[in-house]
Design a protein that fits this description.
By secondary structure, the chain is of the alpha+beta class. The protein has one domain (about 5-95). The chain is built from two helices and five strands. It has a five-stranded antiparallel beta sheet with strand order 2-1-5-4-3, with helices on one face. Strand 1 and strand 2 (about 15-25) form a beta hairpin. Helix 1 packs antiparallel against helix 2 (about 50-60). The longest helix has 15 residues, at about 25-40.
Amino acid sequence: MSVSALFTVVVDFRGGSYVGQFNRETPKEALEAWAASLRKEKSVPGASGRLARAVEQNLAQADGLPVPLEGLANAWFASATVGGDMASIHIVRTER
């Protein structure tokens, strides 16, 4: 059985930064949890549902997402596009 870790998800989208922390086993699970929380909390004005859906679709369609950042430990990257605007998503395994 895997042990959960604390992951920090940092999303830059349309000039705003959105941050969440989740206890999950993998960075992909942390990103899935962020998308679910985005639907619930609606923290991205005017785009929460569409951004959550774009992230979920990317995770379902692409193997290996999020991608490990070369040369860094415990850091990953993913992205999603909504209405021509790209969301840059960084996931970092965080010490407690």
